UniProtKB/TrEMBL annotation:
It comes from Thermodesulfobacterium commune DSM 2178. This is Chromosomal replication initiator protein DnaA. The lineage of its organism: Bacteria, Pseudomonadati, Thermodesulfobacteriota, Thermodesulfobacteria, Thermodesulfobacteriales. GO terms for cellular component: cytoplasm; plasma membrane. Belongs to the DnaA family. Residues 1-81 are annotated as: Domain I, interacts with DnaA modulators. Pfam families: Bac_DnaA, Bac_DnaA_C, DnaA_N. InterPro entries: AAA+_ATPase, Chromosome_initiator_DnaA, Chromosome_initiator_DnaA-like, DnaA_C, DnaA_dom, DnaA_N_dom, DnaA_N_sf, P-loop_NTPase. Residues 338-406 form the Chromosomal replication initiator DnaA C-terminal domain. ATP binds at G139, G141, K142, T143. The gene is dnaA. Oligomerizes as a right-handed, spiral filament on DNA at oriC. Domain I is involved in oligomerization and binding regulators, domain II is flexibile and of varying length in different bacteria, domain III forms the AAA+ region, while domain IV binds dsDNA. One of its GO terms (biological process) is regulation of DNA replication.
């Protein structure tokens, strides 16, 4: 059989979620040379990313078509020439970017690596017609990454980047509407904006007119192969009062979540932030702070800054004692509640609201999530059954039934075991800084 790249690509498309396929394979060229698939990639970054994340898939697909394997050829795309435009569009519409937000200064960990890689890729290559939706809680790096894209483009002479908050967008619209020039406003975007960075899209809730205008503008920009990054605190489906016209467009974007930093990433962030201030913190101080400060990165920054300020005021070295005093003084609650952490991590993993976990609903996904939490509490934290019964306000016998049922499921269901394994690892990284035993225990051990 004649095997072509488009045949293999078609198969990859079937196997991958659409957004992932679009990012990494859709625009990739390839050919079969002497029975081997050669992928043409634009840079080393793409090559490494594909290699690290999709090698199993590529091996599987090439074997299926009788190919001997795959390889890469890196063909750099010449950088876009600087566009000469008669004015600086950023001063007309949009905010100035802060130079402090760069990719180099963004600490990458498990919690944010996908977001980082996609943003980096967008800044490097500006793939055509991309809508990226970056969401996550306060202070987790949405602004940092979005502005890093803009800064990286600007630093290479590409200045058709519009960076705005949703509120700015609305204010501009009102201003132009009032002066009867709304069409000029829209035309301006259409003509000059190549990359739109729009922050805080949740702000448009209930603003029907603006949402509809934005939906039309979005269609136009994406059709023309422009790149758009939106940020928000919530997933598109969780946004209230958003018109279906805009919501459906958001739902079809590449949706990426920024998670709260895990223990390892917090350590890296603390080290990095202190280093930027000219301090090399000792191992025990970093460990201590990373355990105590679990909130967003903004909070981590302020604790590091506070500690260093304190040390320099007192003319003392930064020590564990000083760190302990600071934490006590600012009254950071000890948020090391492992039970809550397991519940939150599991709910996040299965995409269910925490309240639903404790509801009486028997929905399949909820029942499964409950069983996972019960299993983790019992096996990872070694919680007595009586405590787990109290947490769920359920009879002891119900908890035992759930444990048994779940245990039977993981014996049979390999996918579920893999998911559980992943969760145990994530939790162990956070709670212990060591991998906990991920062996699945037998019921005898469980019920002792
Ligand atoms: N991974 C990271 N590495 C280094 N600094 C980070 C990281 N994530 C966030 N920060 C820093 O934390 C602070 C808050 O980040 P940022 O403003 O990007 O968060 P946000 O998600 O946009 O928050 P909000 O929703 O509240 O606007 C910034 O100073 C930013 O530089």
């Amino acid at each position: 059989m004649f095997v072509s790249w488009s045949l293999v690509k078609g198969k990859i498309k079937e196997l991958l979620p659409e957004p992932i396929f679009k990012v990494w394979f859709e625009a990739t060229n390839g050919e079969v040379v002497d029975g081997k698939l050669i992928l043409e990639v634009p840079n080393e970054f793409t090559k490494n990313w594909i290699e690290e994340n999709y090698s199993t898939l590529l091996n599987q697909v090439t074997a299926e078509y009788g190919l001997t394997g795959y390889g890469f050829v890196v063909r750099e795309i010449p950088k876009a020439e600087q566009l000469i435009i008669p004015y600086n569009p950023v001063s007309l519409i949009g905010r100035k970017l802060s130079p402090k937000y760069t990719f180099e200064d963004f600490v990458v960990g498990k919690c944010n690596e996908f977001a980082y890689n996609i943003c980096y890729q967008v800044a490097e290559e500006r793939p055509k017609g991309y809508l990226i939706y970056l969401y996550g809680n306060f202070g987790l790096g949405k602004t940092h990454l979005t502005q890093a894209v803009g800064n990286s483009l600007f630093s290479r002479g590409f200045n058709r980047v519009y960076y705005l908050t949703a509120q700015d967008f609305l204010n501009y619209m009102i201003k132009y509407l009032k002066s009867g020039m709304i069409e000029t406003f829209k035309e301006h975007f259409k003509e000059y904006c190549e990359v739109l960075l729009l922050e805080g899209i949740h702000f448009f809730a209930g603003k029907e007119y603006t949402q509809n205008e934005l939906a039309f503008l979005l269609d136009y920009l994406l059709d023309q192969g422009k790149t758009v990054i939106f940020t928000s605190h919530k997933m598109p489906q969780e946004l209230n009062s958003i018109e279906s016209s805009l919501r459906s467009r958001l739902n079809s974007s590449l949706i990426i979540k920024l998670n709260a930093p895990d223990f390892q990433t917090r350590k890296k962030i603390i080290k990095h932030k202190a280093k930027k201030l000219g301090y090399n913190l000792g191992y025990e101080v970093i460990e201590y702070l990373a355990r105590k400060v679990r909130g967003d990165v903004r909070q981590i920054e302020s604790v590091v800054l506070g500690l260093i300020a304190r040390a320099s005021l007192l003319k003392e070295p930064v020590s564990l004692t000083l760190a302990k005093e600071l934490i006590e003084e600012i009254g950071l609650k000890d948020s090391s509640d492992s039970v809550d952490f397991i519940i939150e991590t599991t709910c996040r993993f299965f995409g269910i609201p925490k309240e639903d976990l404790f509801s009486s609903s028997r929905r399949k996904d909820l029942s499964l999530s409950r069983q996972v939490v019960i299993y983790l509490l019992r096996n990872v934290l070694k919680k007595p059954l009586k405590d787990i019964s109290q947490i769920f306000k359920k009879q002891h016998s119900t908890i035992i039934y759930n444990l048994k049922t779940f245990e039977q499921k993981i014996q049979k269901d390999v996918t579920l075991r893999t998911k559980l394994d992943y969760l145990v690892k994530e939790i162990s990284l956070e709670l212990n800084d060591k991998n906990l035993d991920t062996e699945f225990e037998t019921s005898d051990e469980i019920f002792l």
